[in-house]
Amino acid sequence: MSSLRADITSHPPTVIRGSEIISALSFALDLTEGQAPGHSVQSCMTGMRLAAQINLPPDARAALYYALLLKDAGCSSNASKLFHIIQADEIRAKGDVKDKDWTRVAWDSVRYAVDHVATGKPFLERMRTLIQVAANHRADSHVLVKIRCERGSSIARRMGFPESAAMAIHCLDEHWDGGGYPDGLRGEQIPLLSRIMNLAQTLAVFWNTYGPATAIEVIEKRAGKWFDPDLVKAAKSLAHTGALWSGLKSENLLSEVGALEPRDSHLLVNEEMLDNVCLAFAEVIDAKSPFTYRHSNGVAQAAVGIAGQLGMPAEEINLIRRAALLHDIGKLSVPNTILEKPDKLTESEWQVVRKHPYYTLEILSRIPGFADLSDIAAAHHEKLDGSGYFRHWGAEQLTMPARILAVADVYDALAARRPYRDALPLEAVWNLMHKDAPRALDAECLEALEASHSVPGTASLAALAGLHRINVPANDSSHPPSSAPVQIDSSDTTCAPDAVRT
Ligand SMILES: [Fe+2]
Ligand SMILES: [Fe+2]
Prior knowledge:
Elements: H1 2-5, E1 16-17, H2 18-32, H3 39-53, H4 58-69, H5 79-86, H6 90-97, H7 107-116, H8 123-135, H9 137-158, H10 163-170, H11 192-210, H12 212-221, H13 229-241, H14 253-258, E2 268-269, H15 271-286, H16 295-309, H17 314-326, H18 336-339, H19 347-354, H20 356-364, H21 371-378, H22 400-415, H23 426-436, H24 443-454, H25 458-464
Antiparallel strand pairs: 1-2
């Protein structure tokens, strides 16, 4: 074990800039919102230029910067609800709605509904769902936006951002004419930061899809309806000089957006804030599906238990805990049609699932000092015999932290209820996992996990390491009840992929 431990050579620097970590993690929010990679960062750049143009005071600019990067932090929490409403791929639906004027029923909104509701379902079922969606459109939109803005603002508060940033996220979808959600605020009742953010995200979407001329045309059309007319004037003036779009196509968006953080209020992330950010993003990840809403925290708790049993030093346990909290961040790319499918997945659906650790690596490796953490997190589906995914790593490449995470991940998935089966009793979990150790799973880690269950005070070990389970209230509408779970016979199956979608 000690040689495996020695593979960990670098750790996050003691000081990371807040902009570096939050802007990198915002790429995960783009994934689940169906937006092009970099959308949140581009919205932030556009919004900060608008803020400079209207001479927004420095304190407000600092709050705006992080509110823009985290504007979609609540987007995963309504994914399941949206999937249940439209009975189709909710990521595609979210991505395509961004350039529609959903406040008025016109040909393009009808076309949108036909393209995104109950696609692939039999004709009668599709018609029934379309009629339901049309009838409940306003009420459902209100609920979906409310879930998203409440969760988004609560995540910003959890990370320690000021109330003005949290409220800016809360009111992101309010419209100047009172036709927005969740509270139908109008005009200057809407926080100025939210008005800037809504305009900035719309500019970013249309600039990205149709180019600058169309982006300006759209905001002109919606001035006084969606947007504050004075802000639209400021945007047009900036667009006229070209300053509004500067750097949006850059290869290095992260350094472009980093340069726009207000100079006097650079946020430096200490260890405590780093933990808060990891916990907050674990909440974003787990909110995607009712079946995984405690998964990241559960994996972190199991991994910390194993590492503690193995006598690992506190610094390494911290690294493992953070990797565990973020290991499934790439899963935000997987639509709920797959995450909540009660039947076996098709090969093409498995291809989508197998990509999620790749996205985990893509997102986490953008953060300075996160090289080890991203490798550990992205290896959570690798197996010692090379049969895992996505890099098909084997025993030689898998460090002890990676082995710990793989064992903790399988354990938590088996011990939790899934769309395709009930939660398994502990004895069945051990039986299944022993069938895969030591061939695929590390036997020493598995023994340590079992031992951690029999040691009184394991929970307090997790608490000492900074773990806090985030409980979602039973009546949370973003986590609807599932259909009846499918039982599996645990006596004759191993941790085969369809038994463990982790
Ligand atoms: Fe997982
Ligand atoms: Fe996973």
